[in-house]
Amino acid sequence: MTETGKVREVRENIVVVAPERSAACFGCMNHECRSGAGFITAENPASLPLKTGQTVEVVSRSKSLLSQALAALLPPILGFLLGFNLTRLVFPEAADGASAGMGVLFLFAAAFAVYFVRKKYPAGKGYEVKRILGE
């Protein structure tokens, strides 16, 4: 995800950016902005010469997005497979419908577990400054 905004504060290699409000803000329902008083905290790995007031482009790290996607998608899939195969193991005469039903129950249980764990321990966003757009 790419955001554009003005640099509010520079602390060593950490930059606080006030994002511009756009259609992209609707995607996360301003969750990132509300949690940090409307600002995004990003790293400056390229050591760009940043100053307060500059307009910069901030991007999410692809590694961070991939790990978040895997953490959200893998547990429900594994839950379904566990429920399906566990039903077959415990009840060998169970029909496909019963095994699939238990798989769906385990899928939802795993999805709710991921939801509650992420609610209590939110994932870090991992933003970094990509480039300076202007003064």
Protein described:
- It contains 4 helices and 5 strands.
- It is α+β, with helices and mostly antiparallel strands and 135 residues long.
- The protein folds into 2 domains: 2-63 and 123-134, OB fold (Dihydrolipoamide Acetyltransferase, E2P); 67-120, no CATH class.
- The longest helix is centred in the middle third of the chain and has 29 residues, at 62-90.
- It is rod-shaped, with a radius of gyration of 21 Å.
- The mean pLDDT is 81.
What secondary-structure arrangement, pairings included, does this model have?
Elements: E1 2-11, E2 14-19, H1 24-27, H2 31-35, E3 40-43, E4 55-60, H3 62-90, H4 96-120, E5 127-134
Parallel strand pairs: 3-5
Antiparallel strand pairs: 1-2, 1-4, 2-3, 4-5
Question: What can be said about this structure in brief?
Answer:
The chain is an alpha+beta fold and 135 residues long. It has helices at 24-27, 31-35, 62-90, 96-120, and strands at 2-11, 14-19, 40-43, 55-60, 127-134.
Terminal CA distance reads 22 Å
Note the total helix count: 4
The beta-strand count equals 5
Q: Could you say what the CATH architecture of the largest domain is?
A: Beta Barrel
Strands side by side in the biggest sheet: 1-2-3-5-4
- Which descriptor suits the 3D outline? rod-shaped
Estimated share of beta-strand residues: 25-35%
- Biggest pleated sheet: 5 strands, mixed, barrel
| CATH topology description of the largest domain | OB fold (Dihydrolipoamide Acetyltransferase, E2P)
Helix and strand succession?
EEHHEEHHE
Helicity level:
40-55%
Please tell me the overall pLDDT: 81
Q: By CATH's scheme, which homologous superfamily of the largest domain applies? A: Nucleic acid-binding proteins
Taking pLDDT < 50 over at least 5 consecutive residues as the criterion, the unreliable ranges are none
Domain tally? 2
> What is Rg?
21 Å
Structural class: alpha+beta
CATH class of the largest domain: Mainly Beta
